[in-house]
Amino acid sequence: MGKIVNQNNESKSALFPTYARYPISLVKGQGSWLWDDQGNKYLDFMSGLAVTNLGHAPEKVKEKLKEQLDELWHVSNLFQIPNQEKAATLMTTISSGDAVFFCNSGAEANEAAIKLARRYHQKVKGTDRHEVITFNQSFHGRTLATLTATGQDKVKDGFLPLPAGFKTVPLHDLDALKAAITDQTAAIMMEMVLAEGGVLVAQAEFVKAVAELCKQEGLLLIIDEVQTGMGRTGKWFAHEHYGIEPDIFTVAKGIASGFPAGAMLGKEYLREAFTPGSHATTFGGTPLATAAIIATIETMKEDGIPERVAKMSEYLFAKLNENLKDNPFIKEIRGLGLLVGIECVEPIASIILEGQQRGLLFVNAGPNVIRLLPNLNVTEQEIDQAMSILADLIQEHTNVKTV
Ligand SMILES: *Cc1c(COP(=O)(O)O)cnc(C)c1O
């Protein structure tokens, strides 16, 4: 963890200390590259935590945003918003979702999903079902409801009492899941890759069994695609790898290339559960935000991003296996698409800092897992550059351990 410093390297900041910030101030970005205020250049293999998926300042999105800046930034959702309609239509054409609610973040999208599930059972089905079952190690956000849904104790510390109506069970334990279902259960919510929880890829049979169970029991299946969505895993949405269609799924992070935006998508039969006034958010789907979403999706379609990611992922995994697989410091290399976890035998916080000093930015996923999130336009050459830095860093740590 870096020490907390502000822009001027003073030890006191006017901010709440909710982040252990690295002592680097990034001031410019282009494609896979970032520059700090000292003129140092970095190869970005974290993409603002799976946000800048087209790289920094992608040309087509930038142009579209500039045009929209000249026209109109914000109007209330009490009016027609053509960009919002268009963004929603685009999202439903690239996915199995039929109706879209726009918001501003992943937590807010998951909050909307939880509310929709409750409201569907209570208003459409006329039951009092309300519980949501989630999994250990999951991450669903930082609002009170979504941190309660999150299967990690560290996000709950000091925030009691937590809202009622949530249960967490171990991943890949179908019996525990079945045992947790009652006549109060409304939905099961899960990630296809538990990204924050250590880049744990959900097993196919388990996911299929969960989808089947939801059908049998009349529960809604909510897939949290906030980190895995929009091409990151080599499909538009990670649940496509599993051949399932969720009732509800959520996106945020990468959907607008860095402009803050989120969305919840639901199946047609859920549409009537929300009525005017039942759910809202001031900034959801503004003309400016949805211009960024439209430009992001159109660019991804034109450039065949999901297919590109699938190919580049093969290249990245081949390189990782070639360079690191037999290294005793490495326990496992796993992931889906360009969401990669390298589990090490020891904490990797110092390796992150050493990477920064050598011009490579990446993050962790839990104490022992190196997480790589290159942008989805990353080149083979950039992967080679990152690989050579990473292989050196890990080799040095291996050497330290063996002498
Ligand atoms: C980041 C993330 C969230 C929370 O998104 P915010 O935009 O930070 O609220 C929720 N779920 C998953 C899987 C995430 O990766």
Keywords, separated by commas or semicolons:
single chain, 403 residues, alpha/beta, Aspartate Aminotransferase, domain 1, Aspartate Aminotransferase, domain 2, seven-stranded mixed beta sheet, amino-acid biosynthesis, aminotransferase, EC 2.6.1.11, Acetylornithine aminotransferase
Ligand identities: pyridoxal-5'-phosphate
The biggest sheet amounts to: 7 strands, mixed
Q: Tally the beta strands.
A: 17
Put simply, the count of helices is: 11
Q: Output the CATH class name of the largest domain.
A: Alpha Beta
User: Superfamily at the CATH H level of the largest domain?
Assistant: Type I PLP-dependent aspartate aminotransferase-like (Major domain)
The general outline is globular
Modified residues (N6-(pyridoxal phosphate)lysine): 253
Pathway: Amino-acid biosynthesis; L-arginine biosynthesis; N(2)-acetyl-L-ornithine from L-glutamate: step 4/4
Binding site for pyridoxal 5'-phosphate: 106-107, 139, 224-227, 282
Protein name: Acetylornithine aminotransferase
